[in-house]
Structure formats: C-alpha cells, structure tokens
Amino acid sequence: MELIRLEKAEIGYKKPLLPPFDLSVRSGERLAVLGPNGGGKGTLLKSLIGLLPLLSGKRVFPNGRPPRAGYVPQAPRIDPIYPLTALQVVLQGRYGRIGLGRFPKASDWRAAMAQLEKVGMTEMASALFRSLSGGQRQRILLARAFCGEPELLVLDEFTSDMDPVASAGLLAEVAQLADRERVSVIFVTHEIQAAALYSTAVVMVDARRSQFAAGRTEELLTAEALSRLYGQNISLERRGERTVVFVESGRPR
Amino acid sequence: MSPTISLADFWALFGNAIIAAMLGAALCGYLGFFVVLRRLAFVSAALGQIAGLGVAFGFLLGSYFGVDPHAPTPVYLDPVVLALVLSGLVSAGLGYVSRVERTSPESLVALAYLSSTAITILLLASPRIVQEAHEVGDLLFGNAVAVRREHFIELVVVAAAVLCSHVFLFKDLLFVSFDRDMAQTVGLPSVKIELFLHVSIGISVAVSTRAIGALPVFGFLVLPAGAALLASDSVRGVLALSISGAMLAAAGGFYLSFVESRPTGPLMVACAAAYWPLAALYRLARRPR
Q1: Rounded distance, CA B185 to CA A96, Å?
Q2: Which residue among B177, B186, B233 sits closest to A148, beta carbon to beta carbon?
C-alpha cells in the first residue's frame, strides 16, 4: 500500500531542479536516496514529506491523510546550546500526538523512556543532550523519531558524522527496529554499500545533470547506473548478502 | 546616599516606575530565553530602535493631524500603537527572511537597526516634533523614571497576554526553536508557531521599550538569559535565573540610581551584565577536577 505518492512533481526552491517525475513510498519499504553532493537529495526528501512545497504537481496520500512521520536530521543541524536532557528530546517525538498547547501525560513520558530503552540509552535519560557524543545524539534523535509511533521514518544523512563502524552498526539497528515496528524508511545516504544492504528501493538523483531514476534496488543499483550518477567509473562485487563498491580514481567521466 | 530625597519619598515618586521596570524585566528575562537560544540577540536591539521609530513616526503624524502629544490620541495615531505594529511586523519579517537562502540574517538585522536609527534621527530633526525629541531620546537610551499610567497598563496587559499564552505553548515554542523540521514533520504548524514567537517578542519589546527604554530592554533580553545558560543546565533553572535576575537588575538599577544619582537605564544594564562574571565563576567552581 502506498503512503505517499508524488505525481508529475517539480521540486526546488524557485526553479525546478529536475524534470517532472513520479515517485511513491510504499508501506514496509526502505527507500535509499543516492546522488552526488548538491544533487538535490535533501530537496527531494523535504518535498516528499512536505517540509518544502512542490513547485508543481501533486502530493497524494492514498490513506486520505499524511502518514505519521519521524525525522532524523544530520547531527550538526542540531544546536547544542539548548539545555535539554536526552529524555526531554525523545519526548518531543510525541508532541504531534499530544497536540498544540497541551501538556505531556505520564504515559507520554513512559513512552519516551521505552524508546530510550530500545536504542540502549536508558542510563543517559537525564544526561544533557549536548554532553553526548555524536553517535549517542543520533541514537537519541532516532528514539525521538520512533517515539511518535511513525508509519514513515525519514533519515537525512543521519550517520554522516559517525565513523564507518558506528555508522554500519546504527544502520543495522534502524533496519531491525523498522522491521519490528513495521515502519517504512526513507534514507538519504552517500554510502552505496548501505543502500545495497538495507534498501528495498532506490532513488538516484542529480539535479546538475537532470538525472532522476527510481526502482527496485536489485534492478536499479548497478555499476552502470552508479557510474552515470556519480560521473566516475564504479564497479560492484556481490559477496553473499553484501555488496562491495569500488570507485575508480581519476578524472570524472 | 542622595542628600535631597529620602528612600520613602523616592518610592512615592517612582514606585510605579520601579514596578513597571520589574514587570518589563520579567517579561524580557523570560523572552530572553528564546532570544539567546535562537541566537537573536541583536534582533532585540533592532526591535528597540524600531519601536523608537514607531514612536517618532506617531508624533510626526500626530503633528500633521493637529494632535496634542500630551492629550488623548486616536488609536491609529498613538505612537505606542505604531511602535507595536512596526515592531510586530519587523519581528515577523525577520523571522521569515532568516529562512530565505542567500540572505545573511545578521546583515538583515543590521539593516533594520541602522535604517530605523537613521530614520528616527531624521524624523526627530523635523521642526514639527522638536518638543517630543527628548521623549524619543529617553525611549532609545533608557530613562525609566517616569512611566505614564497608560503605558503601565499597556505593559501589564501585554505581559499577561504573552506570559499566559506561552505557558500553554512553551513546549511547542521550544520544540520549533530546537528542531523546526522535526516539529513540522510530526504535524505541528512550525511556521505559525515561529511567527507567534516573533510577534510576541516584537510586541513585548515595543511596550517594554516605551515603559523603560530601549537600552534596558536590550540588556534584559540578552544578559540575564545568557548568564543563566552559563550557570544552569536545566530549562527550568535557566528560566528561573533569567526572570529573577532581570527583575533584580531592574530593582538594583533603581536603587543605585537613587544612591549614586546616576541615570537608571545604564545602571540596570550594568547590574544585568554583572551576572556574567558571576555565572562564569560559578561554572568554573562546578567544573570537575
């Protein structure tokens, strides 16, 4: 079942970044958004979830309402000056359900604690968010996103500030959590291997070359498509469930 | 001690002004929490100047309509109403343009500050309102010793409205300030909430400026909250320190003004600035060794 569908959508701030395109996010799907820096991945993400209005075309909700969504931004986007505890940040995920001008109930605080437990951060509940490491902050933001019981989880390069081991571990946890909670995921990433391993569908976008392609991961994520997307020779090697990516050094194509 | 007046006489003369200053300080001390966290410190300075421009413009308009500035004025010519409208509009506008790409928020704040100051000075040079120039001067540089009853009532009404509405919307205002995108993603009207916050700040700055002057208002919006953030690690702690610190600085400024026979506004700001080294020392003392 579709959660969101874009029809003949044109996205951008003033001028369209891409020719009109169609795109849908289905229930249970894990959609990876790939593309070079400045290629419009963030704009596509924001347009898809309604943070940015479409320049033309339609955003359709086949359920008759927008899906409940949780959003995890890149770590540096959050200003560490705020004196909020980890638990207070996680509770924010329920503010949409609590409603404007209403106060959180005991059940909301319990739900926030339960989410902290799921990401293994219970002992950090009363720690200041700003005092946590980059990886811990992203876990807290992930718990916040899950706290609103989302149907759709939106991850905007959320492991970009982490080392490769921590990033791979967190992505694997997200995939497990999303499967357990039956949540669809859209994730913007620069990690082709992560896209190959965790996505069921892929969107490739590069506004500078007016490229847009969407499809099943096993069909679209090919060496040829990736080489075209990044303008560099890229080869893929399947090793069991995993895909190893080789990027040829040298001048861009 | 001032040789010409007793403390009791001082209270009888300036009691209302002291209460107004403490109320304005409490309002600014509270809003300073958002001003500092959202890094809008100089927006509040610009808004004080814009409030001054609104008052000067009101006097000038009144002179064209033959209004006596010291008699009751029609609402549409009331300098305070014009200050409120201008401050509210500019505050909301600054909130909007800060989201526009290729625009540096600081340069827009500087534009608002400089242009409103320059236009105010030009308006005050008009021979039509030369008699009111001292009043606008007091407003801009702070002379909280004489507060008219109507200005006091305006301040009470605005403070009550802002503080009561913020009690209910506080969690949402803080959420939108912390992470606007997530707030919008979970379904909160983040643009409207931000607009409400900016208009709250604009209107509060306008009425507080009219009552206690632009310099103390700017000081109370930035200094107590900044020091409180240094001293406390909790939202409640920062709010409590910021509000009580601003009120204490207002009272301290009046007291020192009485004792030392110096201008009140700058002394209030000096008292509020003194919190910074105290907060830094407290922070140092608490640092684990």
Answers
A1: 9
A2: B186
Q: Which two tokens stand for residue A64?
A: 């008759």
SS3 A162: coil
Over residues A185-228, the pLDDT tens digits come to 999 988 888 888 889 999 999 998 889 999 999 899 888 888 88
Residue B179 to residue A78, Cβ atoms within 8 A: yes
Put simply, the answer to whether A13 touches B101 (Cβ < 8 Å) is yes
Distance CA B208, CA B23 (A): 9
State the Cα–Cα distance between residues A155 and A167, nearest whole angstrom.
13
What letter would DSSP give residue A27? T
pTM: 0.87
Residue among B37, B101, B185 whose CB faces A71 most closely:
B185
Q: Which residues of A touch B (CB under 8 A)?
A: 13, 46, 49-51, 66, 68-71, 73, 77-79, 81-85, 88-89, 92-93, 95-97, 100-104, 128, 144-145, 148, 154
Q: Can you tell me the ipTM of this complex?
A: 0.88
B235/A145 Cβ within 8 A: no
Contact B186 A68 (CB under 8 A): yes
Taking only the tens place, the pLDDT of each residue in A22-73 is 999 999 899 999 999 888 999 999 999 999 999 999 999 998 999 999 999 8
Q: Which tokens go with B144?
A: 């909280």
Say if residues A71 and A154 touch (Cβ distance below 8 Å): yes
Q: What is the torsional sign of CA B160, B175, B28, A127? A: positive
Q: Return the closest-CA partner of residue A186 out of A216, A162, A155.
A: A155
Mean pLDDT of chain B: 85
pLDDT band at B183 (very low <50, low <70, confident <90, very high): very high
CB A95 within 8 A of CB B175: yes
CB crowding B101-133: b at 16 or more within 10 Å, else e: eeeebeebbeebbeebbebbeebbeeeebeebb
Mutate to test the interface with A, among B185, B195, B235, B241 (most CBs of A within 10 A): B185
